[in-house]
Amino acid sequence: MEHLYQSVITVFGMLAVAVIGLLSTRWTVRQENERLHRQLERGSLLKQTQEWQERLRLSVSEILAAVDPQSRRDFDMDRVTFLIHSTQLLLDQSDEKQNSVNQALNELALQATGWGIERPSGQKILGLQDKLIRATAQVMFYPKTSKMPDSPA
Question: What are the sequence ranges of the domains in the chain?
Fold first, then answer.
């Protein structure tokens, strides 16, 4: 009878070890899966941010070139309007820094297209271009990080 108790205790011990091993393995696999998911999400978000920054840089550069009083010969209002609207569609108006880019775009558009009250001087256009460049740099080089998932410890 004593051997039977020892056998039963051994079997239950082995079952307990198997269950603990199974639970431990499942927990480890789940943790690794979550870590991998966070890593992939951060990589995807980083790629999206880089692509957005490149699109914004190109769009703003085209606007600056199109309204530059030192280089333009034939002013194409339709092209400038298209570029400004395209750039505005890239911006998140609820973000303070991106909204400042939008405001700089609007000021430049009003003056460069002649929609403003008075015909601007070249110096004023250059000043508005500088304002747009500075606002865009704030958005591109100091991006919002609140959407970035937390890094694993």
Answer: 48-142
